Amino acid sequence: MSIVVLHAQEETVDAKASAILQSLSKKTKSYKSIKAEFNIIMYGRENKITDNQKGNLIVKGGKYRLELKNQVVVSDSNTMWTYLKDANEVQINNVDHSADKGAISPTNIFTIYEKGFKSQFKGETTEKGASIATIDLFPKHPEKEKYHTIELKIDKTKNQIVLLKVFMKDGTIMEYSIDTFTTDSDLSASTFTFNPKDYPGIDVEDLRE
């Protein structure tokens, strides 16, 4: 009898997670573009902070512009430019469209939950007056990933991800907290391209085949 009750509870939990994620996906796909300011914290195996930095991300379809403390990564969905600020060097690569879909990237950080995961609702809390749902994601093919769990915190009123925490298999943790979230901004075409001529003395490494 207890087995039947437990099974029913698990189905209810998963169904609730699925409903929240479906609503989140529908809302996210309605945006023409997303601009977000975020904070990345890396924790070592003993849960000590090993790195902490802020960043900015602009996403429009398969295009993105990611700005971090020491580098800028830009992609027009076909070409990717990685600019290393300290070295004044840009590396140019073709975008690998066959890359692992389970890997976290700028283009899927707000939608990674849509494919390849099992989800589990963990509960709801109130933070700064907002109702926050916590959902754990588990990759369906964990042997292919470097992480075992992704924790999502979702503002249910705004229908937006406010935190994404990745638990790596080596015991480290990467936490992305979203500070600002702006949608449907007017963006120029130059947002998603990189012009080396704007950087005097830059070293260009074209690694495209």
Write the layout of secondary structure elements.
Elements: H1 2-29, E1 34-43, E2 49-60, E3 63-67, E4 71-75, E5 79-84, E6 89-94, E7 117-127, E8 130-139, E9 147-155, E10 160-168, E11 173-183, E12 203-206
Parallel strand pairs: 6-12
Antiparallel strand pairs: 1-2, 1-11, 2-3, 3-4, 4-5, 5-6, 7-8, 8-9, 9-10, 10-11
Low-confidence stretches: 1-13
Structural domains: how many: 1
- Count of individual helical segments: 1
Helix and strand string, N-terminal first?
HEEEEEEEEEEEE
β-sheet strand percentage: over 45%
State the distance separating the first and last CA atoms.
62 Å
What is the compact description of this entry?
The protein is mostly beta strands. The protein is built from one helix and twelve strands, in the order H-E-E-E-E-E-E-E-E-E-E-E-E. It is globular, with a radius of gyration of 19 Å.
Account of the 3D structure:
The N and C termini lie far apart (62 Å). It contains one helix and twelve strands. Strand 5 (79-84) and strand 6 form a beta hairpin. It is globular and about 55 Å long. It is mainly beta and 209 residues long. Residues 1-13 have low confidence and may be disordered. The protein has a twelve-stranded mixed sheet, with helices on one face.
